[in-house]
TrEMBL record:
<feature type="domain" description="RNase H type-1">
    <location>
        <begin position="78"/>
        <end position="212"/>
    </location>
</feature>
<feature type="binding site">
    <location>
        <position position="125"/>
    </location>
    <ligand>
        <name>Mg(2+) 2</name>
    </ligand>
</feature>
<feature type="binding site">
    <location>
        <position position="208"/>
    </location>
    <ligand>
        <name>Mg(2+) 1</name>
    </ligand>
</feature>
<feature type="binding site">
    <location>
        <position position="148"/>
    </location>
    <ligand>
        <name>Mg(2+) 2</name>
    </ligand>
</feature>
<comment type="similarity">
    <text>Belongs to the RNase H family.</text>
</comment>
<keyword id="KW-0378">Hydrolase</keyword>
<feature type="binding site">
    <location>
        <position position="87"/>
    </location>
    <ligand>
        <name>Mg(2+) 1</name>
    </ligand>
</feature>
<dbReference type="GO" id="GO:0005737">
    <property type="term" value="C:cytoplasm"/>
</dbReference>
<keyword id="KW-0255">Endonuclease</keyword>
<dbReference type="InterPro" id="IPR037056">
    <property type="entry name" value="RNase_H1_N_sf"/>
</dbReference>
<dbReference type="GO" id="GO:0003676">
    <property type="term" value="F:nucleic acid binding"/>
</dbReference>
<keyword id="KW-0464">Manganese</keyword>
<comment type="function">
    <text>Endonuclease that specifically degrades the RNA of RNA-DNA hybrids.</text>
</comment>
<keyword id="KW-0540">Nuclease</keyword>
<keyword id="KW-0963">Cytoplasm</keyword>
<dbReference type="Pfam" id="PF01693">
    <property type="entry name" value="Cauli_VI"/>
</dbReference>
<dbReference type="InterPro" id="IPR011320">
    <property type="entry name" value="RNase_H1_N"/>
</dbReference>
Amino acid sequence: MAQKKPKFYVVWQGRKPGVYDSWDDAKAQTDGFAKPLFKSFDTKAAALKAFGEKPHLHVGKPTKPAAKQTKIDGLVGSPNPDSLVVDAAWNTATGDMEYQGIYLATGQKLFLKGPYPDGTNNIGEFLAIVHALALLHQKGSNIPVYSDSKTAIGWVKKKKANTKLEETARNAELFDLLDRAETWLQTHRYANPVLKWETTVWGENPADFGRK
């Protein structure tokens, strides 16, 4: 007899919201609870992503069948739930930039900064990673930090934001933050792995602002 594929359950509204790997645990949070919101998913990565999003995007809609595992899926594996995921958003109309970080396992937002005028997405991604590293350093935590920006990860490794953006009176605060971030990288040691969020395999970065 074929083994039943595991399911993962997202509880947005219940006694204790979260992601559960058994129906019994999820049911305990929703059974008898007024207006519970929950849904099952075929993969843990999909469940974790959904938990960080608004429930109306998922509840009442059919779950997409899990894609077949490809060779690259096996090589990449799954994201570590015990991690901090960051992302930035840049408004092409106004030039405003903001960034945020969430704890992947629960979807809890740990910080949100901005908007900053006359920024760029790469600057936001860089500042988000450094902000995450500084926060985790302060807490004495060595958990990984995920970003979907190869450019920003490269800047962090080099401890230098190689931006072409010109400094102006409007973005002076942003350049001050860049200077402070570079100084922090040059004066602190950290053991946190800074990893690439594999969007093609895991889906959209859970810290995404959802404005695409």
